[in-house]
Amino acid sequence: MLDCLNADFDDSTYKDAYELWLNEIAFMMRLAIDSPTVISYVKGSKGNNISWTPTSWYPDEYSVDINGTIATTSPWDGGAILFGADGLATGIYLITFTVSDGLGLTASDTVQVNVTANPNIFAFLEDINSELLLLIGGELIGLLLIVIIFRRIRGESSKPTKKKM
Description:
CATH superfamily of the largest domain: Immunoglobulins
CATH topology of the largest domain: Immunoglobulin-like
Number of strands: 7
Strand content: 25-35%
Largest sheet: 5 strands, mixed
Order of helices and strands: HHEEEEEEEH
Helix content: 25-40%
Number of domains: 2
Number of helices: 3
Radius of gyration: 34 Å
Low-confidence stretches: none
Shape: rod-shaped
Mean pLDDT: 81
């Protein structure tokens, strides 16, 4: 059996033993990724992150796609990668992480993110910016003051006069 490895049965110009050794080295140096498969959170909550811990002997860069659209691409130094998933609208998203090494090899992982609606009845206020809320509040206070002033003026002029006996 071992004699077979000294030959070149596939006509690659290399001994089969050398090719097997190269394949073993490539297998040991392959890219690998670990991550969660599904994440769920309520819309508007904070701190929803996806953490990937890829490994490579020769790290290069990574990219993150949300439903097929590139969200970010950045150089990778070989450490863990944290992606913030906050701010997504209600729905189901497939977030794909792809890492590549200096040899051009890639590995990918996809995480499903479920964003559910906020059960809070005042959740719609989270989407309105604070300046608009201040403007609306100021207008309501001004309207209330105008109503109070008119009632006082009207109340003083319509008071019945007392007759002396």
